[in-house]
Amino acid sequence: MIAWRANILGKLAICLSLIGGLFGCSGNAALSADTTHYEFFLENSTLEMKDGVRLAVTYYRPVAKKPRETFPVIMEMLPYRKDDFFALGDYEYGSYFAKRGYVVARVDVRGTGGSEGGIPESEYSEAEISDAEALIAQLSKMSWSNGNVGMYGLSWSAFNSLMTAHRKPPALKAIIAAHGSTDLFYNDVHYIDGALHIDSYAHQIDTDNSMPQSPDYRIDEDYFRNRFDREPWIFTWLRQQQDGDFWRKESLKFKAPLEVPSYLIGGLLDGYRDFVMDVGRTAKAPVIAEIGPWNHAWPEYGVPGPNYEWRQKALRWWDYWLKGIDHGILDEPRWMAFMRTGHAPATDLTTVPGYWRCDKQWPSDGSSTQRLYPQTAQHLGNAPAALETAQALLYRAGIGMAAGGWWGEQTGDMATDDAHSLVYDSAPLAEALEIMGMPQVRLRVAADAPFYQWTVRLEDVAPDGKVSLVSGAIINSSQRFSRLEPAALIPGEPTTLTTSVHFTTWRFKPGHRIRLAVANAQFPMIWPSPTPGATSLLLSNDTWLELPVVPMQNETNQACILPPPEPSDAAPFGKELEKNGPVFNSFRNEQTGDSTFTTANDVTWIIRDDKFRSSESYRWDVNDAMPANARYQGERRNIFTIKGNEIDLSTKARIESDALYFDVTFTKTLRKNGELIREKTWVDHIPRMHQ
Question: Does the domain at residues 14-194+243-359 carry the CATH identifier 3.40.50.800?
Fold first, then answer.
C-alpha cells in the first residue's frame, strides 16, 4: 500500500521527511559542521506488523564513522502525523540525538498519519501496544542497531512508553516519559479526578485522525473505510463514564511495579504531573524524576521557566542504558523539583520565582505534615471546630473559570471564583512555610440531591488580598465508596469525601494566609452536575486539609546546577508562517447566571511547496438556574494544499445535556479543490451515569 519507501542505505545523502511524497535527497550528508557530532540522514520506510499492516517510520540515522559501527535506537510512537503536523517539531529532537550517535525512529500509530490499517478503537489500544512490542523487536535486529532500544516521548508517547515498558520487551532497556499517566480514568483528559471533562483535544484528535494517509493523501475507498467513516472516539469516551476494564486495561496503577529504568519529567502546570510520584514510589528499577514549573512541554522551552537543557541528561541516561557508558548518572540526586517561592496571580509569567531542590529520595529527609481545620468565621486553624457546624454552599454551575481548562496553566486572581465558594483562611503566617507533594483533603458534607461534584482549591492570599492558585482537585461524590461501584448520595444524609490534591510546590511567605476554597462547580474543567440546589460542609474533626511540609532550603545555595537550554536545529525543509493563539476568553453574567468559556487557535506552516493550515474554535455554556442543560460546541478545519490540490476537512461537534442524557452530534465534511466529496454525521443519545 505504501510505495514511497526511501532506499538510501549506505548513501551519504540527506533524505528529508517531507509532505505529500516529496522526499528529496541532496548530495551532501553533512547536517552539522561540528566534527565531534555525527553526520546524519533521514530515511522514510515502513515496518510490517504480524497482521500485515505496515507502519510508517522516519529514521534519523547517524552516518557511521568506522566500519560496522552500530547504534542504539530511540523510538517514539504517536498518532500525531509525523509527515505534516509534527514534521517540523520532530526534527528538533531527531536531529539532536542522531548527531550524538543514536538512531531515532519516529513511528505513526496504525491507522494514523502515514501508517496503514484502520483507526484503532481508542487511544492506547491492545493493537497499539502490541505494535510497540513488535517494533522494538524489529528495530533491535536492524543491521545498524546495537540491539538496545529506548522509548521516549511527551504526552501520548509518554503514555505508551510506560505501557510498553510494563510488558518488558527484551530489547527495551530504558524509557524517558514526560507528562504521562498511570491512571487513565482519573488522570487523563477525559475524566479529570473521575469527573467528565470535555476537552478540545477530543475534537482535535477525531479531526486529525480523519485526514488522508500521508504522503500521497489518496482519497479512495480504503481511506473512507479506515479513516473518514470511522466513528469519532468522543462517542466511545462518553459511553465509558465510569471506571472499569476499559480504562484499567493499560493503566499502570493497577499493574505490577515498573521494572524498566525510567527518566520521568513533569510540570507543576500540567494536568498529568502526579504520574511522576506514582511511578517513582513503586518502580522496581532505577528512576530519575524531575518536576519543573512549566506546562505541557519539554523543560528547555516550557512556559513558564526557568528552563534547562534536559537533553544533556537524557544523553547520559541513554549512554548508560543503551551504550553501557557510565557518566555517574545514577550517583547523582534522582529527585528534582522546582520550589515556587510564592508569587502574585498572573497569566503571562515567563519565569516563576523559586529554586531547584535536589534530593536522593522522596519524600526528602525532614518532611512532615500539617493538618488544618476549617472553622466558623471562615477561619483555618490547627484544631477542629468545638461543635459540628453546617455551612451552606449554594451551587452555581458556572463557577470555576478563573482556574482555566484543567489543573494547570497560569491563572489570574482566584477571588472571582472564591466569591461563590466557601473559603477558610489561616492567620497570617509568622514565618515562611514550604510544601512539596500532594496535599490531602477530607470533607464531611450533606446535599439536597443525589449527585453533586465538589471541588477543592489550595490558594495563597497575599496581604493585599490577591489570591494565587496553588493546586486543586475534583471529587466525584458517587465514587466516595468505590470507583468501580458508584453510588448516589442520600439527600440530607451526611457523608465523608476524601481526595489528594494534585502535586504542587509552594512557599507561603510571612504575612500571607493559606486558603482552602470549596465549591460544587469547576466550569468548564468539569461538566456541570444537573440539579440546582445547595450542599452543606460540616465543620468537624472529619473536615480538614493536610499539607506536605518540607524543610526550608536556602535558595541561593541550591543543590542543583542546571545547563541552560541549547538552540535546537530548525528543520531545513519548512517553517511556521503564522500562529494566532491559543486565545482563551471567559464571560459571566451575575444577573442572569450565564457563563461562557471559549478558546480559539490558528496556525499556518509550509513544507517545501506544500502549505498547511489548521484552525479551531470551541465554546462551553451553562446557566446557574439550569445546570442540566450545559452545552459544548466546536469546529476544527484542516486545509492542506498538496501538489496544488487543496484537501479541506472540517468537523463540527455539539454536546448538549439534560438531567438524564448527553446528546452528541459530530459531523465530518471533506472537500477537494472546493468540491464536496463526502459528509457524514454521527448522533447518539447517551445516558448520564453519575456525571
Answer: no
